[in-house]
Amino acid sequence: MNKIVTIRDIASHLSISVSTVSRALRGSYDVSPETRERVKEAARTLQYHPNYHARALARRSSYTIGIILPYITNYYFAAVLTGIEEYASRHGYHVTLFMTQDNPATEKIFLQQLSPYRLDGLLACTSLDNSEGMAYTRLLAMGLPVVFFDRALGSVLASRVLQDDVAGARLAVTHLIESGYRNIAHITGAVNNLMTSRRLQGYLQALEEAGLQQTNEWVIHSGFDVESGYNDTGRLLDSANQPDAIFSVNDRKAFGCLQQLRERKITAGSQFGLVGFTNEPSASYVFPRLTSVEEPAMEIGSESCEILLKHIHNKWKHAEERILPGRLCIRESSHR
Amino acid sequence: MNKIVTIRDIASHLSISVSTVSRALRGSYDVSPETRERVKEAARTLQYHPNYHARALARRSSYTIGIILPYITNYYFAAVLTGIEEYASRHGYHVTLFMTQDNPATEKIFLQQLSPYRLDGLLACTSLDNSEGMAYTRLLAMGLPVVFFDRALGSVLASRVLQDDVAGARLAVTHLIESGYRNIAHITGAVNNLMTSRRLQGYLQALEEAGLQQTNEWVIHSGFDVESGYNDTGRLLDSANQPDAIFSVNDRKAFGCLQQLRERKITAGSQFGLVGFTNEPSASYVFPRLTSVEEPAMEIGSESCEILLKHIHNKWKHAEERILPGRLCIRESSHR
DNA sequence: GTGAAAGCGCTAACAT
DNA sequence: ATGTTAGCGCTTTCAC
Question: Is the pLDDT of residue B93 over 80?
Fold first, then answer.
């Protein structure tokens, strides 16, 4: 590495003191316009580049936030992260990424490495099976602001940004009802999962509001993937009490559902209604195109980052919960 | 923020010197097992957390690498980034993310902020319209190792990891030919784009190898999105000289193609052959399921990170180019 | 408006 | 094997 140009070099080059250079460089107070210009000019010609670690050390703040999330190969998280990065970088913050692969052990390891001496704040989406918030509580106690997004630990007192799963699910199911479907099943994830239970709740509410009967038979809990959707739909269609529509907890399961329907020569969007959740781009590539509840992924990202920065700047002292509404994107799969 | 526990505190608590503590803490040489244990014990009880910025300042190395890329909402880049993050964190490196939105101006701004005083290395995928590599050359000259992935600037002498687009395209087209299709068109991106020209080259090679005639009519340049695929396919099917198969430069265009075929009641996978490129997950959600050339996205990520770390550790002095092969995933859309 | 000086927390010679 | 010490580059009182 070549010799490093520091503010000291600028100072001696200009025969002024380092403190003046320091002040001039971040265009701050108490420095005459002329000196400021001379300093900036010198910085340019000497090819000065600030050392962020030195700054972070002296200032005890690094202008860097950490993001903990399961993965980014699914559209939803990629969009959330995009929202975060965009907001953060627009406000002068950098973003370090920690991908847990949805593994609580990996998450824990990351968490143990972190501290306020490294990061100004943390945005986290916990692993699915993570139940204990100790590591987060420790970080908060050390003075590191934490904001949860999408998934939050109930045991940890921190701000959180979630989407309105209940309302979204109600929207979806009400739409199916209005389209003329009456026997609406719900395929969803594991029973103890928070997202599962919220979307189920919305499903049940919608049925109730419409005076439709609820049957346990029509609620199938399994995985969140395409194959589970395929299998769940198979089970429903094989049962004596066949539904004529399905509300799927997410798009991926809905894609599996489409496949199953296709194999049975059941036309989705006329004989059979289908609505998904997430509204990933592929929802409009499949056939028939999938009606889906759009999750406000980018907004979740940017709003959680906004809250985090407020915490960092000490604007907000206490935890806030923000719940963002979704929006129904109506396509062919829910026609009648 | 609470009072900070430093190695000095541990030292005085144990009545030993800070250097011993420092050495003991990163389990290094020249420290007796007993002291090491006592130090680690004290660190735990005193709730010591290392200050990475202080360390980075003293060591002139931050164990952090930067990633510049256009976006992550498409599957390919998300997978590459996953490969990078996984490799990096497994080797003790952290990853800071810079998303350019494929905008050269944004890219340039990021690049100007960066320096070896902040990062140990940089992994970059340049914006599509970026032609000038000055900023990268400057960084390299400052001693910051840079490795390009997926897209590289010809003008910059740095290592790069790319996929074998030519071979992949040849694979795709040869497969169509072997399936019995003879009139194979190619829908692709802008003429001056590097990916476009490489995949086109593979397409032409395959035709030539099979002794099939090449027609300019059957090569359509437009955008990379679904809609372009839809439109391009429309043009081809409206032309006097109709193809019976399409090799699409990517999956998204292929999805548009499927839509167009569907509207015209042309059955892909029997009347008409179709192969895409990328093999994103949705390739197997659509109907008929899309045959596609799988891009080794994760590997591109991990291998570029591997090369970068070698540069950082000064193992490799000069630039290396690595070209990874793809693999054809055969599904229904290319049957006959 | 500008300067001197004391750190920020850690590392790495060098000495012992 | 352990200690002493001089920084790493920047910020920030506190004087003037």
Answer: yes
